[in-house]
Amino acid sequence: MRKIFVFISLLIAFQSCNLKKENKKTQAPIMYKPSEMAILMRGMYEFNKIVKTQIINKDSLLPFPEEFVNIHSAVLTDKFERNDEFDSLSKKFIIYQKAIYTSKSDSIAYFFNQSINTCVVCHEPRCTGPIPKIKKLLIPEM
């Protein structure tokens, strides 16, 4: 009798393990879908990483990407983050980014750093995670 009880207990335990494995297999993973703004900011980061190198090497710059202007309308991860401060800083960012292409060569690094600092200031009260990465874009005084 005891052997039958042990056998049934082991059978139930084995079956429950198999059910858990089957349930895990049938559940679809939840995929993160970045917002328009997150995608745009990642593109801005990658672009500015290239521009930083071009400025340091005194190479000719890539043309200003007009999609950066979408910073004013791109859907944010949290729609409540778009406020007057965000709008003001995003306008400054575009002004500084465009100034990189219209200023004298001795001012290019200054305007580049101003645009990057604007990103940092905007991220401080909202989303601090990328700030260390953004700060790496700054061009040291040459």
Structure description:
It is a single chain. This protein has 142 residues and is an all-alpha fold. The chain has helices spanning 2-26, 36-56, 84-102, 108-123, 131-135.
Outline the fold blueprint.
Elements: H1 2-26, H2 36-56, H3 84-102, H4 108-123, H5 131-135
Helix pairs in contact: 3-4
Q: Tell me the β content.
A: under 5%
**Termini Cα gap:** 86 Å
**Total helix count?**
5
Rg from alpha-carbon coordinates? 26 Å
Question: How are helices and strands ordered from N to C?
Answer: HHHHH
Structural class category: mainly alpha
Overall pLDDT: 85
Q: What shape does the CA trace take? A: elongated
Q: Count the beta strands.
A: 0
Regarding quaternary structure, how should these chains be classified? single chain
- Helix fraction bin: 55-70%
Largest sheet report? none
Give the low-pLDDT segments: none
Provide keyphrases for this structure:
mainly alpha, 0% strand
Short description:
The protein is mostly helical and 142 residues long.
